[in-house]
Write a structure and sequence with these properties.
The chain has 4 domains: about 180 residues, P-loop containing nucleotide triphosphate hydrolases (Rossmann fold, 3-Layer(aba) Sandwich), CATH 3.40.50.300; about 100 residues, no CATH class; about 160 residues, Fumarase C, Chain B, domain 1; about 200 residues, Rossmann fold, CATH 3.40.50.300. Helix content is about 45%, strand content about 10%. It has 26 helices and 17 strands. A hairpin with a 5-residue loop joins strand 7 and strand 8. Helix 3 packs across helix 4 and helix 14 packs antiparallel against helix 15.
Length: about 675
């Protein structure tokens, strides 16, 4: 049995599924992945919905006798692989050896035993007041569901959990409650410098990953590993990236910087507490006396003052790309923050180092640990601010707008680090339902070293789906255009009898459409923001005739099979904003080919992802309606259409209406 081929082993796995049958595309993909893992070249596989791509890469990965890291787009997909897919594969494969796998997440996803020790020794209520000081959130006793109640439940759970992974929880803890019992990568001193290091949940997870055949991570942890030069993930011999169309943007974010005024204030407040002073003003004070370090001239107060100056300076540059040196106003504010962080580090370093030990040795006291964590957070923030000040032409620095203003940076191109640390060292499998052509080489794979495949989908898109482009709608810039769009949407929703997921490229357009449509249709209209995403999807999927209006966060990862979803409406082609700083910089770098190499592939991928929400099973049917005439009339329209599932196409509203009405008309009629 150990000599079975990859297709034979795949057949054994799929046979365990209800009506399980290996699909042609799944077989082709499995063979290609096996060949990739046995050699040095790479493979990029476009595998449409329903292919069963997770089995198509898990089976050959386990047969390869290599430690393989599987990087997914979300923690939810990590958990699905670990709790559903891999257990089925393990029960079915005949390899003549045991199979092991492990899930590894970022440090902040695990309980911190040292934080729990400190909390219990200091008194839980005092610790909650401390957390209120750090986060600006109200704390205290209170009704069930309050922060205090959540912390109590987390402490109780800490006595029974084997992994410390928050995914095990049967409730969603308040962010402040979770912060009270966890620690971020910027603060953790590491197991060798922590009194609780021997029992650290994160270190235990890393130890399990170090001996596993398959290590399941998310893209952000892969980015953290690249940023650290390979210090986060265990040694591995191959990499599989699922939902690889998101890899470039996730890595750019992970390899960059994000510093907000709130982060500076959090560091200042945490340092104040670590140095023995009271919580920040405006929050309840503990009974501890203030030390000399917490007077008006203290380092924490100096950083708080710098945070206010930093916030004021960023306010004048919202949504703007910054020049080298960051410009006079923002540059001066950043330099002030850096100098105040240096001063704070000096005080924290003294507080975290017992006189009889070297700075590199761990502090055994709880106060020393708090000082050490604050020191590490301050050092990391200072380093990030300094990197923005000296950023060169290969990096983009900008100010974000919206509710959370911050200073951000990102590498213009992630291909160099991927080429050096990944593609030149191991075989790589990239896969997604929507992979742009040439993605692997754009990400750093050597020319000619990648096999590209499109294995299609087993679904009968031509029979079950229709793409309708509303070419008659007026130009968006003309008066009355929004009213015409709302009229079009109303007609389609009536034909579908609700059952609509309407995807918008802006919150304004979503809200205007919801306001216009609610009085005009008899079905519930759920709107993004009314509830958390999970609850909103549950409300939509539990009502067969409801509508859901949403923006970019719902264009991907939404899976609502069955008659609940018969119509996907896309209000306009999802091109990136022309003034979005990172995209604009990439466009400039590409020169005359900027639109073709930057904007168009991203729009095509997102459009295909949005359209892909419609047909999730072999029996699903429906219409994708694009309310943007450019899909039919623009010179680049054929590029976008090729990215869509191969449904029939029409420009005739009446045909789309007939298709939808026929779906919900009883056969006897």
């Amino acid at each position: 049995m150990p000599g079975l081929s990859v297709t034979d082993q795949l057949g054994r796995v799929v046979a365990k599924l209800p009506a399980g049958q290996v699909r042609d595309g799944q077989r082709v993909m499995a063979v290609a992945v096996a060949k990739c893992l046995a050699g040095t070249n790479h493979v990029a596989v476009t595998a449409g919905t329903g292919t069963g791509k997770s089995f198509a890469y898990l089976v050959p990965a386990l047969m390869s006798h290599k430690r393989v890291v599987v990087a997914t787009a979300t923690k939810a997909l990590q958990d699905q692989l670990a709790t559903k897919d891999l257990p089925l594969v393990a029960r079915s494969l005949q390899l003549g050896r045991p199979i092991s796998w492990a899930v590894l997440k970022g440090r902040s996803n695990y309980l911190c035993r040292q934080r729990l020790v400190e909390m219990e020794q200091a008194g839980r209520q005092e610790s909650l007041l401390d957390m209120g000081a750090k986060t600006g959130s109200p704390t205290g006793a209170g009704p069930p569901g309050s922060i205090s109640d959540h912390v109590t439940r987390l402490v109780e759970w800490s006595g029974t959990t084997k992994s410390g992974d928050r995914a095990e929880l049967d409730f969603e803890p308040h962010p402040t409650a979770w912060s009270a019992v966890s620690v971020g990568v910027d603060e953790c001193p590491g197991a060798h410098r922590c009194p609780s290091g021997a029992d650290c949940f994160t270190e235990l997870a890393r130890a399990r990953a170090g001996v596993a055949d398959i290590v399941i991570v998310n893209l952000h942890l892969l980015g953290a590993d690249l940023r650290s030069g390979g210090a986060v993930l265990p040694e591995h011999e191959a990499l599989v990236v699922d939902e690889a169309h998101e890899l470039e943007d996730v890595l750019a974010a992970c390899l960059g910087v994000d510093v907000s005024p709130g982060r500076l204030r959090g560091i200042a407040a945490g340092a104040r507490l670590a140095l023995g002073g009271p919580p920040a003003s405006g929050t309840p004070r503990s009974s501890r006396p203030a030390s000399k370090e917490t007077t008006d001239d203290s380092a924490p107060d100096g950083l708080l003052s710098a945070a206010g100056r930093f916030e004021q300076a960023l306010g004048s540059g919202r949504d703007q790309r910054l020049p080298p040196g960051l410009g006079e106003d923002i540059g001066d504010a950043v330099r002030l923050a850096v100098s105040r962080l240096v001063q704070l580090e000096r005080e924290l370093r003294a507080a975290s180092k017992p006189e009889s030990t070297a700075a590199t040795e761990h502090a055994d006291t709880d106060s020393g640990q708090r000082s050490l964590r604050s020191l590490l957070a301050a050092e990391r923030c200072r380093e990030e601010l300094e990197s923005c000040l000296i950023a060169g032409g290969d990096e983009v620095v900008w100010v974000t707008g919206g509710e959370r203003i911050s200073l951000k940076s990102a590498p213009l191109d992630v291909s160099s680090i991927l080429a050096v640390q990944v593609f030149s060292h191991m075989p790589v499998v990239l896969t997604s339902a929507t992979l742009p052509p040439g993605l692997a080489e754009r990400l750093g794979a050597a020319p000619g070293g990648v096999t590209e495949l499109d294995v299609g989908s087993p679904f009968d898109y031509r029979q079950n789906g229709l793409v309708y482009c509303a070419v008659r709608l007026p130009d968006r810039r003309r008066p009355g255009a929004e009213r015409a769009i709302h009229d079009e949407l109303e007609t389609l929703v009536h034909a579908a009898k609700g059952r609509t997921l309407a995807l918008f490229t802006s919150h304004r357009a979503m809200q205007e459409a919801a306001t216009a449509l609610r009085p005009r249709i008899p079905w519930p209209v759920h709107v993004q923001g009314d509830l958390p995403k999970t609850a909103l999807l549950q409300a939509f999927s539990s009502e067969e005739a409801a509508c859901l209006f949403a923006t970019m966060g719902f264009w991907q990862g939404v899976d609502v099979p069955g008659p609940t979803l018969s119509l996907v409406v896309i209000d306009r082609l999802p091109f990136p904003r022309p003034d979005e700083p990172l995209t604009a910089a990439r466009r400039e770098a590409a020169g005359a080919m900027g639109f073709r190499t930057v904007d168009l592939p991203r729009a095509a991928t997102l459009l295909a992802q949005g359209a892909g929400r419609l047909i999730r099973t072999e029996t699903d049917r429906g219409v994708v309606a694009v309310l943007d005439s450019r899909l039919a009339t623009a010179s680049y329209s054929s590029y976008l259409v090729r990215a869509l599932p191969p449904m029939r196409r029409t420009r005739d509203q009446a045909e789309a209406v007939r298709f939808l009405e026929a779906m919900h008309t009883p056969a006897s009629a």
